Amino acid sequence: MISKKLLDILVCPRCKGELLLEEDKLICRTGNIAFPIKNDIPIVVMKEAIDLGSN
Ligand SMILES: [Zn+2]
């Protein structure tokens, strides 16, 4: 589980906005992208970003 403290520190590498924890990923609502969490480690880098499409 990702700690709240760590979540507060993490920002989206693209827009520097906040990230929302959702199950096994971190989501940037601004950019509609998600970052995976692998073995409890958030992979917050653009090359791992998952495009959620525009909706
Ligand atoms: Zn972003």
What brief labels describe this structure?
55 residues, mainly beta, N-terminal domain of TfIIb, five-stranded antiparallel β-sheet, 1 helix, binds zinc ion
- Put simply, the count of helices is 1
Order of helices and strands: HEEEEE
According to DSSP, the number of beta strands is: 5
Small ligands present: zinc ion
Q: Kindly name the structural category.
A: mainly beta
Radius of gyration: 10 Å
Tally of structural domains: 1
Regions with pLDDT < 50 over 5+ consecutive residues? none
The span between the termini is 28 Å
Question: What is the approximate shape?
Answer: globular
Tell me, rounded to a whole number, the average pLDDT.
Answer: 93
Q: Can I get a quick summary?
A:
With 55 residues, the chain is mainly beta.
